[in-house]
């Protein structure tokens, strides 16, 4: 049978969504506190079971301690908040002019993103990493979609070799991130939501390749810039806000801005495949937030 | 809310910094010391201690280090930082001024009453 102390610590760990190392450290600290108190009460003549029950009661609600510890560790500094929003600002900057069509600028930003994402991943996954990671994953997914749009033969190669590999990388990174915190998974997937939402307004496959999609994308540049700036604003708010429910609300604002911008820019003229991608992106982004909201109830 | 509890809440950081400045210490010992030094006046809610310690550590006022005891048990000892000492000195000076002013007002009231 599980002891009162183990049960208490499990409850504490279940509702604390912070870096695993910090979480284990605080749990260990609480454990030594409970052991000290139990030992002292045992010396006063109580049984081990009674003593550990009283020790647990004196420490108070594990959920409340977890919430207070979360609020201490979940709030990033302004520096971290701005660094997290930087990739969104850089992409917005690309679209404020024709820079996004310039292979040199795009390559520099891509290399920077990949380098920073790999650095952050191997340096304990700090809070600023996740938006960068989202952009790191983007080429992986977009390449798969583009391969599927290629003439027959290439599509098969994509389906057999590239897509399983890309899916493996994608699922692995999303799982690792969600294990830390579901909300970080949403934060990470947010750039994909913007990109796919805007691509969905252009059509897919032959329709996309045949059309002058570059010119159409440039026409919608203002809407795209607004979407990425909304994302940057939400990211800053997410990092700076302390209470978890406020973080959830901050994550729900960009999808609304993006959906509105895409629908207005395309005047509702999105084909069924486009709507499917749009809804899929919205769901992928919203599911972690929704799961977290449910856990609250 | 209870006035005494509110006062304690507003001064928790200073009390913790004071105890940690005296000697590096750990969570459970802090609770016991506070109770002992205040003759049982400060019945510190044990669960609120750790969030407070982590907040002080985040603000770079204290520094926590794991130490292995001879019996193999691990404890996290907290040390005051240089910044912590400065902040504590400022707070104690403010508290001293505040306390002197409050006492002066209270004494005047008592004498005139």
Q: Your description of this structure?
A:
- The complex is a heterodimer of chains A (297) and B (113).
- By secondary structure, chain A is mostly helical.
- Chain A folds into two domains: 4-71, no CATH class; 76-296, no CATH class.
- Chain A is built from 14 helices and no strands.
- Chain A has helices at residues 4-14, 20-43, 48-59, 62-74, 78-95, 103-122, 129-149, 154-180, 182-200, 205-210, 213-219, 221-240, 244-266, 272-296.
- The radius of gyration of chain A is 23 Å and the shape is elongated.
- The two termini of chain A are 28 Å apart.
- The model of chain A has no long low-confidence stretch (mean pLDDT 81).
- By secondary structure, chain B is an alpha+beta fold.
- Chain B has one domain (3-112): Orthogonal Bundle (Arc Repressor Mutant, subunit A).
- Chain B has four helices and two strands; from the N terminus they run αααββα.
- Chain B has helices spanning 3-22, 27-37, 46-58, 82-112, and strands spanning 62-68, 74-80.
- Chain B has a two-stranded antiparallel sheet with strand order 1-2.
- The mean pLDDT of chain B is 87.
- The chains are: A mainly alpha (297), B alpha+beta (113).
- The A-B interface holds A 25-26, 28-30, 32-33, 35-37, 58-61, 64-65, 68-69, 71-73 and B 26-28, 45-48, 50-51, 54-55, 58, 66, 73-76.
Blueprint of the fold:
The complex is a heterodimer of chains A (297) and B (113).
Chain A: H1 4-14, H2 20-43, H3 48-59, H4 62-74, H5 78-95, H6 103-122, H7 129-149, H8 154-180, H9 182-200, H10 205-210, H11 213-219, H12 221-240, H13 244-266, H14 272-296
Chain B: H1 3-22, H2 27-37, H3 46-58, E1 62-68, E2 74-80, H4 82-112
Antiparallel strand pairs in B: 1-2
């Amino acid at each position: 049978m599980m002891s009162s102390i183990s049960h208490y610590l499990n409850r504490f760990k279940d509702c604390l969504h912070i870096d695993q190392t910090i979480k284990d450290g605080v749990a260990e600290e609480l454990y030594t506190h409970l052991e000290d108190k139990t030992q002292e009460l045992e010396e006063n003549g109580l049984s081990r079971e009674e003593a550990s029950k009283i020790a647990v009661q004196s420490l108070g609600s594990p959920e409340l301690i977890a919430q207070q510890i979360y609020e201490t560790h979940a709030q990033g500094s302004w520096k971290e908040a701005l660094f997290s929003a930087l990739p969104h600002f850089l992409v917005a900057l690309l679209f404020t002019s024709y820079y996004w069509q310039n292979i040199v600028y795009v390559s520099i930003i891509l290399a920077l993103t990949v380098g920073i994402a790999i650095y952050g991943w191997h340096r304990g996954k700090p809070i600023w990493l996740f938006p960068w990671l989202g952009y790191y994953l983007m080429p992986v997914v977009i390449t798969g979609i583009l391969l599927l749009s290629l003439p027959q033969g290439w599509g098969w190669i994509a389906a057999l070799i590239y897509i399983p590999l890309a899916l493996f990388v994608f699922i692995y990174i999303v799982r690792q991130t969600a294990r830390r915190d579901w909300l970080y998974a949403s934060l990470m997937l947010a750039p994909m939501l913007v990109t796919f939402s805007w691509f969905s307004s252009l059509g897919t496959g032959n329709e996309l390749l045949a059309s002058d999609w570059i010119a159409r994308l440039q026409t919608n540049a203002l809407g795209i810039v607004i979407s990425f700036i909304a994302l940057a604003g939400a990211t800053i708010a997410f990092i700076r806000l302390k209470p978890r429910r406020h973080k959830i609300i901050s994550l729900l604002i960009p999808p609304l801005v993006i959906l509105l911008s895409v629908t207005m820019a395309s005047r509702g003229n999105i084909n069924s495949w486009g709507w499917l991608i749009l809804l899929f992106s919205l769901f992928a982004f919203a599911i972690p937030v929704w799961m977290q909201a449910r856990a609250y109830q | 809310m209870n006035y005494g509890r509110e006062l304690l809440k507003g001064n928790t950081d200073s009390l913790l910094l004071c105890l940690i400045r005296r000697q590096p210490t750990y969570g459970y010992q802090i609770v016991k010391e506070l109770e002992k030094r205040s003759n049982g006046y400060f019945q510190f809610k044990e669960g609120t201690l750790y969030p407070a310690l982590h907040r002080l550590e985040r603000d770079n006022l204290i520094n926590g280090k794991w130490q292995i005891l001879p019996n193999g048990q691990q404890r996290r000892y907290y040390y005051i930082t240089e910044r912590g000492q400065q902040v504590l000195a400022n707070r104690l000076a403010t508290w001293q001024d505040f306390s002197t002013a409050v006492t002066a007002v209270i004494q005047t009231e008592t004498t005139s009453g």
